[in-house]
Amino acid sequence: MTDASQPQALGGLRILDFSHLLQGPFATQLLADLGADVIKIERPGKGDLFRSLTFRNKWVGGSESPNFLAWNRNKRSLALNLKEPRARDIIMDLAREADVVVQNFRPGVMARLGYGYDDFAAVNPRIVYCSGSGYGEDGPYVTRPGQDMLIQGLTGVMAATGQADNPPTPVGAGFSDQVGAMNMVYGILSALLWRERSGKGQEVRINLLAGMLAHQNQEMVMAMNFNEDFQRPNSGIGHPGMDAPFGTYPTTDGWVTIAMSPFATLVGVLGNDDLLAYDDPETLFTKRDEVWRKLAAETGKWSTDDLLRALLAADIWCGEVKSHLGAAEDPQVQHLGLIQGYEHPKAGHVRVVGPAIGMSETPPAITRHAPMVGEHTREILATLGLDSAQIDTLIAEKVAGVSD
Predict the structure, then answer these.
(1) Cell inner membrane among the record's keywords (predicted)?
(2) How far apart are CA 295 and CA 236, in angstroms?
(3) What is the pLDDT, as a whole number, of residue 4?
(4) CATH 3.40.50.10540: which residues of the chain?
(5) What is d(CA 267, CA 257) in angstroms, rounded to the nearest whole number?
(6) Mean pLDDT for all residues in the chain
(7) What distances in angstroms separate CA 249 from CA 8, 36, 238, 253, 331, one per listed residue?
(8) How confident is the model over 392-396, as a mean pLDDT?
(9) How far apart are the C-alpha atoms of 197 and 35, rounded to whole Å?
(10) How much of the chain is helix, strand and coil, in % rounded to 5?
(11) Where are the beta strands (DSSP E) in 43-188?
């Protein structure tokens, strides 16, 4: 972990984080990496639902969910029963000095519990309150579950991904949630800048549906203005709107990607001049699957290293296709120091992807491990002036919780 004494851009900013799963926690982790004091408010004992979900029943250190560890570093955990009036008093005491509240429960849940925007604004008019949802705060889908893959299906990205003779293909990561997290950060920082100018807080609302559509704007503009949907290719072409050679191609020991490149130059590298018969824009689109198959027959004669060396020498836009483990060992990834780690009291050494931005004066940093449920309950309650006996009473009466 990094030296916590290094100045950070969001140092002094306090965030009350009620979020769970991916969208909200990733957003608050991004802010925490920049120095914000993120207090993660969790259910005593159970905590964030992601603590109990994992891939392939694998647990880091035998007990900790990689899903939770991925999105919750640099935070403190305060375990409170939100339905307890005394817990609400504690949260509102914290809110008086807080800057931001983040939550991604279904619309209406937080307000019914007494933790809506108006409740926080009543004790702190400068508060920035950010809500994340699947489909917005109202409308015909408001009661639907707003899960990542469901949003991908609704917004066109799934229908545009994969090959035509296969089912629509979801992206192999939580793309909708991660776009939503970025939009949360964008909205929160914008609201904080406005607050500095006006003195006023505000509510920020982010939803996955809007985010996924906005991040496909070039595809949406094309489809809507020509009233024509994209048709998925039936080969390794990499985008439903692109012509050959754009796509993925086999080698003797793997796959390479080839992006927008002069077709004649590519053919020259591969050494089959018969392919030049396809070299006009209309043919490269209308016969793109046929072209892909013929190109693939040629790339399949090369090893990945040899083909990349030849393509790069000819200034062809290309790259390898790597697995997650392969990406972690990539020389450029290593050069940039993107794979980092921290020590966790139960999981041991946890390898993670570090912050993705660089700042010359206030760099982001990993200074805390992902917390255990209620790990910082005593520490945080003490800042409100509660003594040990009072904290012990709250814990004994199940208003608050601490880690094992």
Answers:
(1) no
(2) 11
(3) 60
(4) 14-215+333-401
(5) 15
(6) 96
(7) 44, 44, 10, 11, 22
(8) 97
(9) 22
(10) 40, 15, 45
(11) 75-80, 100-103, 128-133
CB 292 within 8 A of CB 245: yes
Q: Check: pTM over 0.85? Answer yes or no.
A: yes
251 contacts 300 by C-beta, under 8 angstroms: yes
Share of the chain above pLDDT 90, in %: 98
Q: Are 168 and 162 in contact (CB under 8 A)?
A: yes
**C-alpha 105 chain-centroid distance:** 17
Q: Name residues whose C-beta falls within 8 Å of residue 73's C-beta, 6 or more positions apart in sequence.
A: 29, 32, 33, 342, 352, 366, 368, 369, 370
Amino acid at 343: E
319-326 long-range contacts, CB within 8 A, separation 24+: 319/256, 319/257, 320/254, 320/255, 320/256, 320/257, 321/248, 321/254, 321/255, 321/256, 321/257
Residue of 20, 239, 324, 344 marked catalytic: 239
User: Residue 248: in which H helix or E strand, if any?
Assistant: strand 247-250
Q: Identify whether 344 is a catalytic site residue.
A: no
Laid out side by side, the sheet with 100-103 consists of 202-207, 128-133, 100-103, 14-17, 37-42, 75-80, 400-401
Mean pLDDT of the 99-103 span: 98
Amino acid occupying residue 213: L
Q: Rounded to an integer, what distance in angstroms lies between the CA atom of residue 355 and that of residue 63?
A: 25
Write the CA distances from 42 to 39, 96, 243, integer angstroms: 9, 19, 49
List the CATH code of the domain at 14-215+333-401. 3.40.50.10540
